[in-house]
Amino acid sequence: MTTAPSAALGVATRQPMERLRLLRAVLRDYAQLTKARVTTLVVITAWSGFFFGEHKSGLPVRTLKLLWALAGIGMVSAGTACMDESIERRTDALMRRTAMRPLVTRSMGVGHAIAVWALLTGAGAALLATKLNLLTSLLSLLTAGCYLLIYTPLKQHSPLCTFVGAFPGAMPGVLGWTAARGRLELEALVLFAIVFLWQFPHFHSIALLYRDDYARAGIRMLPVVESDGRSTALQILIYGAALLPTTLAPTLLGMAGLPYCIGASALGLGLFYYCARIWKECLPPSEPRARSLARALLKATVTYLPLLFALMMLNRTP
Questions:
Q1: What does the alpha-carbon distance between residue 286 and residue 229 come to, in Å, rounded to a whole number?
Q2: What's the N-to-C CA distance of the chain in angstroms?
Q3: Contact at 8 Å (CB) between 104 and 88?
């Protein structure tokens, strides 16, 4: 028989555990709402742009200015993710990979998500404008607007959405550069071009993997609208091939040295191998083998970009 003191002790023990469980659930919801993984990649890429911008100016790269830049860019990115999930909550409910997002499960309300979007986007843009420069603030808002007003609705209408979405997707490095330098320069455009080209093998591999999900939700990615997979494979091959010489431009511009050039060539050839495999076999997207190749390519793209930028930063020129 349970005594009163022991029962009270059990209740007291459960209360902190319950609070911890609720806290974890809330944090998990916010991480999904703000697309924490994507936002982290945005911040890392922006850091690379800031790093090279400050390095060109001959200034220290670990300063309070870096904190303002990454915080502002990260907040605008996270806010954009909130609004994107608010707009797409009905299509998210139709896809397995997004069915557990908080606006779908209703663990968060749409009004709350919109309030978080307004707070994060407004605070992030204000931070960039006041602590850094107006150009970076305006570019961050332009990037968010392009993503939400053009790319997001276009996904329901045309496979050109991948091409259009690659423009805002390639902006983080540029934002990092302008945060440091206060102006657009050729080096920033090179960083833009690298990420722009990289996105096609990356996002086409995702679209191949989740083709059924996208089709169910009416999202017209290229693998959804074609049955033989040839156009998807060709785009993966072309953009993968174009990426290799583009990644050598930092050496030509004096941003990084010969070791980077050699490493970038090796990484580019490795990534191109996975792109070429998809083109060589050119299987219909519905084939299990096509998804296996797409999964391997996705892993390669996710590994490739951080390694490339890390190598570029480690081998920066004086």
A1: 9
A2: 76
A3: no
Beta bridge partners of 256: 316
CB atoms closer than 10 angstroms to residue 291? 18
Is the pLDDT at 3 greater than 90? The verdict is: no
Tell me the pLDDT tens digit for each residue of 238-268.
999 999 999 999 999 988 999 999 999 999 9
pTM of the model: 0.88
Residue 125 · residue 144 · CB < 8 Å: no
Cβ 117 vs Cβ 83: under 8 Å: yes
Q: Residue 198's closest CA among 301, 295, 270, 296?
A: 301
**Amino acid in the structure at residue 99:** A
d(CA 249, CA 201): 20
pLDDT per residue as tens digits for the range 117-155: 999 999 999 999 999 999 999 999 999 999 999 999 999
